[in-house]
Design a protein that fits this description.
single chain, OB fold (Dihydrolipoamide Acetyltransferase, E2P), 6-stranded mixed beta sheet, globular, 188 residues, alpha+beta
């Protein structure tokens, strides 16, 4: 049975880990998110370098943008800043991400001067490199598993790792994703 802790203790622990990660202590810290299905390029468990991840916010009301591709979820106003929102599952050729209480926006572009966010199924918490081991396969990196609209996916697909529960994680290279022409081309 999982250990139960109060919300205050959880927030305090998370705050301490975030501060530790920003100071470079405890190994490289990665943010885990879930997006899409296992058969999609990279699988459904993703790791994002905490320095690139920006912020995770609950899904807010999205304003649709006309004449955009189906995977472009819309525009979100987060504290007065407009973010373009890409449904990460749909962009990789999967089903659209459900809009529910667990859905999150991962604000990924601020550090790189781009107001961009990924719509993901849910945030799964922090992981350190010490908790992961390199996966023996490159199943998420093979071109055969990529939709035709993602020919340059190898640039944003990082290493694959396995955790203690034998879940396979793929690292998402945010700078490469933000530079990918397929990611930037939202017009029909």
């Amino acid at each position: 049975m999982a250990k139960r802790i109060s919300l205050r203790d959880f927030q305090r622990g998370l705050s301490e880990r975030l501060l530790s990660a920003r100071r470079g202590q405890g190994g490289q810290t990665l943010l885990g998110v879930e997006s899409g299905a296992e058969h999609l390029a990279g699988g459904n468990h993703w790791l994002v370098d905490l320095a690139d991840s920006g912020e995770v916010v609950p899904l807010t009301r999205l304003t649709p943008a006309p004449l955009t591709k189906s995977w472009f979820a819309g525009i979100a106003n987060i504290r007065g800043v407009l973010y373009s929102v890409v449904d990460f599952s749909a962009w990789r050729g999967g089903a659209p991400t459900p809009h529910n209480a667990q859905s999150r926006l991962l604000l990924i572009g601020a550090r790189h001067g781009i107001s961009s966010a990924l719509l993901v199924n849910r945030a799964l918490g922090l992981r350190t490199r010490l908790q992961l081991r390199a996966a023996g396969d490159d199943a998420g990196r093979t071109a055969g598993s990529l939709p035709a609209n993602l020919p340059g996916a190898a640039s944003w697909l990082g290493g694959r790792f396995t955790d203690e529960q034998d879940l396979t994680w793929t690292q998402l290279r945010i700078p490469a994703l933000l530079a990918d022409p397929n990611y930037l081309d939202i017009a029909l």
